[in-house]
Amino acid sequence: MAIRIEKRTTSKLGDVDFDNLVFGKIFSDHMFIADYRDGAWQDARVVPYQNLQMPPANMTLHYAQSIFEGMKAYYQKSGKVCIFRPDDHAQRINESADRMCIPRIDPDLFKKGLFALIDIDREWVPKKEGDSLYIRPFVFATDEHLGLRPSHTYSFMIITTPVSAYYGKGLPAISLMSSGEYVRAGEGGTGEAKAAGNYAASLYPLELAQKEGYDQTLWLDGKEHRYVEECGTMNIFFRFNDELVTPDLDGSILRGLTRDCVMTLAKEWGYTVSERKVPIEEVMEGAKNGTLKEAFGTGTAAIISPVGKIRHDAEVVTVGDGAAGELSQRLFAELSAIRHGGIEDTHNWCALI
Ligand code: COI
After folding, report:
1. Ligand 1 center to residue 200 CA distance, Å?
2. What is the CATH class of 174-339?
3. pTM of the predicted model, to two decimals?
4. Which residue ranges make up each domain of the chain?
5. What is the pLDDT of residues 229-252, one digit of tens each?
6. Which ranges constitute the DSSP H helices of the chain?
């Protein structure tokens, strides 16, 4: 499908303070749009970033038939831009689409739209190491209809925003409070999909954690409230001595791509990497007896986010010495170097444009 291009006449780039980027606050000059109607994706276009018009009965507003991806593009000294793992994101958005009854997007259309947009707005990719252009592909129902059923029409859009470190520079450690009676996802639910509604459901427990002075929620499973699933909007890893452990994908956990990068690198570096159930008691005990050397969250936005403190019920433990551990730091540095072209991309994770 050909992509129509309509350029802005003047750029907003001059208004951007690249030394003080706030996550998701300013958006680049253009956006990509394709519409689904009459059973097919059509009218693919890159147009100036603009507001949307929709009827009050737009189905997404009522029933949240909406999914998204989080991706990043990185500046390389050669002048090229690395779009990180676009094929994997194209695949994952379609896994989410299946679960939410949204029509699949041809991976070619996904990539063509993405590459056209990043190419037009390539000056928006921050040049400082560690900074990046956050890319947000999303798909949502557009029928004007209040009966509950899958929509017949949809929009697929991609917008981008230049960003710096999500939790601040220098890998600051975050604190977690376990989710208590609340859960992020249940067995058979939508936890594995990157569905907008999952994020809405996470807000109230997050508010409770933040009222108690914690940065993020440590999500436990929906059945026994005992097994660790995720933290905040991230996958989670625990390093017990030389074993790196992350909860296994059981349908309620997002198949994170940073999670996959971390497992791949850690295996190459000689760690035993296990995907298995992680009881919260093992984490709390490990922190107390010193076998839990470090813990960290992984996600596109935050990349690697060390965990310094965990509260579960009435108990609070410090992980390691409460700061970023050696593996967290090594992973962060390695991923950054691969993305910015400082070392060879042996896994073919970067699509260069
Ligand atoms: C990401 O890491 O890209 C996410 O989806 C988190 C987002 C809520 C900022």
Report:
1. 13
2. alpha beta
3. 0.96
4. 4-164, 174-339
5. 999 999 999 999 999 999 999 999
6. 59-63, 86-99, 107-120, 196-201, 203-211, 257-268, 280-289, 326-340
